[in-house]
Task: inverse folding
């Protein structure tokens, strides 16, 4: 189902596919999924909270076309923690 949707987007020449909402790094096949996107010439943008840093590192290390991968790490929380992180 998901790959069918990606195929439809690629067929429409959508240049960027954003994976966000929930936590994309919880998807067991995230590396395969991102590689499928970038192997078809689209950019894959992954928005994560950064909690699963080992999965994020594995994604970065194993993406087939790293120039087509964009990662955003969101920082949400109480202002005092947010400001401390920044």
Result:
């Amino acid at each position: 189902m998901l790959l069918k949707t990606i195929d439809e987007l690629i067929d429409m020449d959508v240049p960027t596919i954003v994976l966000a909402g929930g936590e994309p790094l919880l998807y067991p096949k995230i590396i395969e999924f991102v590689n499928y996107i970038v192997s078809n010439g689209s950019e894959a943008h992954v928005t994560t909270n950064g909690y699963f840093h080992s999965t994020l590192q594995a994604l970065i290390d194993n993406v087939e076309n790293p120039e087509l991968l964009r990662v955003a790490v969101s920082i949400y929380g109480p202002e005092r923690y947010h400001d401390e992180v920044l």
User: Anything to note?
Assistant: DSSP finds four helices and three strands in the chain.
